[in-house]
What we know:
5 helices; alpha+beta; 3-stranded antiparallel beta sheet
Amino acid sequence: MTRYVKELKSGRLVIDKAAITEDEKRDGKYLLSSSDLSLSAEDIALGYKQLLEVERGFRTLKTTLSLRPLYHSKDDRIRAHVLLCWVALLLVRIAETETGLSWTCIRREMQRLHLGEFVNKRYRIHRHTKLMHDQRNILNKMNIKPPKPVITIDSTS
Length: 157
């Protein structure tokens, strides 16, 4: 607030309308900087947008995919862990690109699909809930065959 408020000699506080007007000129604009003078403004902006996507991806890894920091001491395990994280991010981005939906929307919709186990004296049946229209669209856009309604029927005897 100190940018927009001035204190007069009398101690009275007043709004600095000139400062507000000056800041309004920058509303909706990005102020970007780079130490590489060979980059164009478009390349710098693209780099920042990609950085935002990477940061969003890491938030997805930590929240949506529930990945947590792991501490590896061997180089091959570190490389494998980074590769797995990268593949997870790649799959998220492919799903978003193919469906035109955010990962949050895809996940929320697909989590409504459940597998139930039904048991009686003679049989144990594993069955999916019925696919909803949006779930079927997501699977179709990603060229994934919908699961069969009944997965297994086993005899309990």
